[in-house]
Fold:
Amino acid sequence: MAASPPPESTGLPFPPQGLALDQEATEYLDRPARLACQLLGVPVALVILVDAQREFFKTRVGWTYCYELPRGEGFTDEVFASNGPLIIPDTTADERFATRRLTTEFGVRSFAGMTLTSTAGEPLGVFAVLDFEPRDFNEEAARGLADLTAIAGLGLRALAPDSEPVRIGDHLLLEILSTGDEFIWELDADGRFHSATRRTHFVLGYTNEELRGTAFTDLLHEAHREYFESVLAHMAATGQALREVEFCLVNRTAEACWIRGAMMPVHDRDGTLRGYRGVGSDVTRTKATEAALRRAEERYRKIFEGVQDGIYQATLDGRVLDANPAMAHIYGYDNAAQLLAEMNANEVYVDPARRQLFLEKLAGAGTVRNFEAEVVSRSGERLWVLESARLVTDDAGEVEYIEATVTDTTLRRHAEESLKLAKESAELANEAKSDFLANMSHEIRTPLNAIVGLSSLMLDSGLSAEQEDYVHTIRHSADALLNIINDILDFSKIESGKLEIENVPFNLRLLIEEATDYVGFRAGEKALDLAYWLDPELPDVIVADVTRLRQILANLLSNAIKFTHQGEVVLEASLANPEEDGDPQVLFTVRDTGIGIPAEKRDRLFQAFSQMDASTSRKYGGTGLGLVHAPFL
Structure:
């Protein structure tokens, strides 16, 4: 693109009437240039005036290379022609500017500029910022550049001989600055507010009139006052600006307002300190977020360090990045720092193939839960652990590290092994006891059967009444002893799990009659009524272990007869699931008119070697094994 014609050919008043290009710049122009560097984050800001032959750098903040260039070797003509901000993200990529001296000789890579105009809209020069690296100026930066260009235009017009004096803190200048969201303030040499932007007033809750003359330190949080007084003293003594400063102000409603920015001293031409200028941002929300993050991190750290399970983070090659105290304790280290320095997570497994399997499962599913492995501690002790882990990835899906928890199961595993050995030992002892009881029952039954048989023969041999009474006693005692032996043998078989159950079809009525016949003699001796009732809905034939069922019913009936002195004992059989489909189930019920069972002792009814109390055992006899078979059978 060709350069624009010199201003004289267009009739434009260059330079401004009465203003020499070589005239020294003033604070009116330097100040907005410095603000541009601070607000836009650029190293260089310029105010450029032109005539027919040259482009003169009137204000040069951050620029020490030259004071002027021949007309057309800079970028001002393109700025004039742009009718707005001219933004060049990369001068080397734009053929219009790639060969200009600013690019080739001075290394300028990015540029943004706007035309300085008079009140009548006539061009007066260019306000520009530039960088030595490629960069893109966003819309917010463009708006800031426009505001600062307007301020620089005020300063430029103030240099004309016939202009009214323009002060840096002027109302008009602040009005322009107030169009943005910047937190900008000016203090006098005593550290009192002179002026501030609308944003400052809004945040602090004071009008400009209320704020003017107020000591800056009066609005500071008390914890920051001494520090800030030393900051002002340092700037006054050295003339150095503070590029990064953070402090807390207290607004009108006593709320904390955190400001983060920069401050600099302002001097007259003779070096006299005029005051201080500050620019920054309201970071109260940012500080609140940072505080919340710190609290959350502290809570996490307390949990991390307080749990009993080990927690660690490690790379895929086993390098441990972080670990909690419990992890160090499990592996025998004095602290987590020692573990980080010495341990490799992939080298603690006793079986390396087991660790490889763990990593393969983790790579395949992204998580692993309760992976059991044997590991070696720092002292060489072998431990058993359960490890659960997940892969942590970055935004691109690449694995950053493994995050895992480790539970020491060594004691539990030893306890399980001890319990297993104890169980096996108990089973062997129980089996030996069962064998012993089986042999003993066989040895005892043989003479008992002889006693029962001979006593039955003697009862048929015409004995006297006294002799018959003696033989009856012998017969009953032998029967009782035989029943006890049978109960003990069955109980032993149940304990050892060797009691076999067989399911065969049989006639239900015949079974019940056999059970009642078995106890009928004892009921007759006590003059008790013994009866049974069958539900007509029951089938004639059912499937069960007929021998064991007969034994249960006989024991229940015998028990009822034993504790009943008068009245009746009744056995009932009814359909347990009349409304349900499928095989019918039979409910057997034995009721009597005996002494009953207290409610608080019913839980002992089916316990081995247990009766209601000692007096019951003494009065009625028995071992307490008669009903213990029922729940098992």
Observations:
- Residues 1-21, 161-172 have pLDDT under 50 and may be disordered.
- The first strand starts at residue 44 and ends at 50.
- The longest helix spans residues 410-459.
- The CA atoms of residues 58 and 94 lie 26 Å apart.
